[in-house]
Amino acid sequence: MIRIAGLGLAGLMLAACSGQAETGGTAQAIGAVGVAGTATTPGVPAATVAFLPAGGDQLSPKDPIVVKASGGTLQAVAVTNPQTGNGVKGELSPDKTTWTSKDNLRYGATYQVVATAVNQAGAATEQRGEVHTIKPSGVATPALFQPASGDFGVGLIIGLKFDRDIADKATVEKSFKVTSSPAQDGGWYWVNKREVHYRPKDYWKAGSTVKLETTTFGMPIGGGLYGGQDVSASYKVHDSWIAKADGKTHQIKAFHNGQLVKTAPTSMGKTADTPPRGPTPTFNGTHVVLGKEAHKIMDSCTYGVCEGDPGYYSAPENWNVRISADGEYLHENLKTVGVQGSDNVSNGCLNMNTENAKWFFDNFNAGDVVEVTNSGGPQLAINNGHGDWAISWSAWQAGSALRG
Fold it and tell me: Is Signal one of the keywords UniProt gives this record (predicted)?
């Protein structure tokens, strides 16, 4: 809401303009304000000041505050939030008749506006007012699934996670914008009520740039919620690195930009019911590299088998390339060298010897792809790291709120 106050101001104007559908109401005077500067020259009207938008018990924090002068020019404009002491930045038009705020406002805040205009004779008029922004029942703020920028492989998954359930997914999804160069067909998929991912139909093209922008801030998004602060991201897709691991042949092959550059024997997760833990097959499907650590202590307690339990282990492992959230890695394991290339005996990881594990560690990075087939395990889930590529394109499209 904007309230204004003035005293002895000739032709005082408060202009109205259309805002969001939920705004309404009229401005109210809240007291007297003195007039600074020289006396009014006979025959020269005093300058008047209007605050726009004028209507509304509550204003969207995304909409700008606009101060306009008539019969003169603006000399000074100050907009502050007395609750925080912060000022709001703005920009004056070339003819000095209009000032427009450039910062997003806060929800549920009161802003004090003080504007001074001078008429053609140099007489000054000061105008004061208040802006009240909407106070929603809740605010849902998105966080990036990945860092805001970086270099990734062709399996890059873009994602957002809100801190509240989203009731109107379609409205929210419409507010997202993903652009890529070169252009590639892609779409959003809602993992649950809070999390949504984006990927193209096929792997990203090597050398692509990919940008994400959200515009949910200030929007009603259902259930009384409004969108929180927007986020943006920019990514660079590096050369294509794709590994194909076959649990039947016990071989892992690496392709650089489509060319086979490495073949190595491996041992995947065991499918036999071997005590004390039973089968621990590697997940089938397309995995994406999440990160890597040169040296790491692998501890079975991370999946519930802790010290004192049958099958507990805690062992140092080298050249670890992580490919799932629940602890699948490509890494060195000297204890299984004798069966690498012939049998699957691991706890789910892809074991290799030192030379081969180091080669994959040196060449595979975040966003690169590891396709696992014939492992004997279930398909990798979308919430187990970046299992998005294991979902067919038709099923992915059906996961969009705009296709329901």
Answer: yes
